[in-house]
Amino acid sequence: ISNQCKDGIITYFNEVINLKPWALEMLDASGKLPSSFFGQTMIDYGSLEDCIKIKAISNDGAGLFTGKYCMMHLRHPLFQTPNHNPQFEKSYDQAFGVPPDWIRYDIENDLPLRFGFYGGICMPSSCTDEDLNKAISTLSEPLNLDVTLTDCQVEEPLRLSVSAILSMISLVVLLLVCASGTILDLKDRKRKENKLKYPESLTRQVVKGFSLYANTKELFTENVKKTSLDYINGFRALLCVVTVWAHAMIYPTFWKELRYRNFHLIFEFMDYILENNGPVMVDCFITISGFLLTYTLWKKIEQSKGHLNVIEQILQRYCRLTPPVLFVMSLYFVCPLISSGPVWNSSWAHEHENYYQNGWKNLLYIQNYSFMTEICMTQTWYIANTMQHLIISLPLMIVTYRYPKTGIFLGLLFYFGPSVYFFYLSLEHQFPFASYNSLRYTHLAEKFMSTVYVSSPYHLPANLIGMFAGWTCVKFGKQKLTKIWLLVGWIVSILCYAFTTALNFMPTKNFKIMAFYDSLRITGMALATSWILYICATRQGGIVEKAFSSKSLVPLSRISYCVYLVHPIYLVFRDAIITERYYMDRISQVGEFTLYFLFSIFAGFIIYIAIEEPFNKMYNILKKRVTSSTPPNDATQIKNDTVLKQNRTEKR
């Protein structure tokens, strides 16, 4: 420890004894042992604002040092999660010894015990972070405590990183382009009303694509063409709400709770359908993605006799998904400049580290092959999955059309291969059920998420089942099912859904049964989803189809991708800005979710009208310009003529 630090600490404690105001203020700004400690209230923030404003003054009026605030984390090995699955191997007592009586109940009931005491401390600024870490480690060594210091802060001017500056410049440029596009669009609309001519250059069209007025109007405008797939808007909107609710349950940092035990009780009584089955709900989205792929492209493949521009389809998906991703990434650099707090820096530091190290993977959509905690924008693992599924599905569709037996063989291989492999993997690692209740086995949950859950082959069966449902609609969608078959279909669908969502609470400790069940859950959810997609596409969905086809759900469906991308920012921001403990219960959760969901909708709306829709328009404008300027070759012309003749024949 440096001499400066020693002198500062000695002066601090001496002046506390002498009741100097500044020394007492430093002591008052530090955290203390909280009330309800035995109820697992494990944090006291102290006061960051009071601490960093303190100026220590000597008896002759000279300045000595200022206050330095740090968050101190103290952990004891006895209260940590075992490094193996206690459900199948050693018990906690066998691994660590008998715990104290006051915490024995929680340990025996699998409380996720990755916690310690977290307290804010106010110390002299003459001590470096390393000095303070050494001093506290020395004092806590007899108690066998692990010490970590984070978020050390002093009063200093705001520093802007290069990434933050570039992000702000990009946002300002975007704002100017949107303002210019809106003004141009409104002017041209006025000229059109007055029947005046106005220029339509390529640049003008692109800039007008950023018109906030036009994009907002189009967002809330109903499609002129009524299609048989309108119900997907409602389905997508419902899944969007479920996803946001599920993330609201698992994203909070639990040690910030007023009573940690209370959060454990909430986990014990989690809603069986919506919350605990969040991990498998995402396969509904993946099934819809596969369904839409074959439903929209299979006829094109048939008309072109097995030809499809795969590169164009992938490029179109890439250009649609990437701009919102880049925009949300820039927000992660700007948001840390907005406020501060006791854990503000550490809350954003992990995100920034992932951006600098793995952000490039987001542009290639391979981020799901990183460890879960290292993914830049964790929620984008799903987007990477859909892109990788697209790359597999397009060639598979072409092969299936040209060589049906080979295509069917590959489809079955892609279905059974991942299912068998991940069954073996779950068996080997003894993973528990894939549900949020399994988060109590923290180390296993992290390993499962990184090695299994975010992997695209794991969810590939759902995509394939969705593709098959889409193909079935194209080939047999005009044939109406009898009432008996409708009844059978609904019964099977409900049973599949019940199998997927309810049986993960079965009282078994046989990990073979668990692994087998987990390997079939995705199939069950995909089958239940595919039935709804198929039956509504054939106009036999009844009340379900009518509810999902509601016009009021269309705007939420259109912005659902942007909502999905941006909603975790609120959760990170909420945890970062907190300066005091809060008590979590069901009423608080509902209120928190309401505010959180409204923020997500508003932010998703802004990103949609300023980013997603303008860049979609730009892609279509440039594609149209390139297509019109490229003369067709002989082979293309012959193929187009053939398609036209076939269409005329079909009409006749």
Automatic annotation (TrEMBL):
Species in which this protein is naturally found: Parasteatoda tepidariorum (Common house spider)
Transmembrane regions: 162-186, 235-255, 280-298, 318-339, 381-401, 408-427, 458-477, 484-503, 515-535, 556-573, 593-611
Nose resistant-to-fluoxetine protein N-terminal domain sequence ranges: 2-154
Entry keyword annotation includes Transmembrane helix: yes
UniProt keywords, alphabetically: Membrane, Transmembrane, Transmembrane helix
Name of this protein: Nose resistant to fluoxetine protein 6
Biased composition (Polar residues): 627-646
GO molecular function: acyltransferase activity, transferring groups other than amino-acyl groups
InterPro entries (alphabetical): Acyl_transf_3_dom (IPR002656), Nose-resist-to-fluoxetine_N (IPR006621), O2_lipid_transport_reg (IPR052728)
Chain segments carrying region Disordered: 627-652
Keyword Iron-sulfur: no
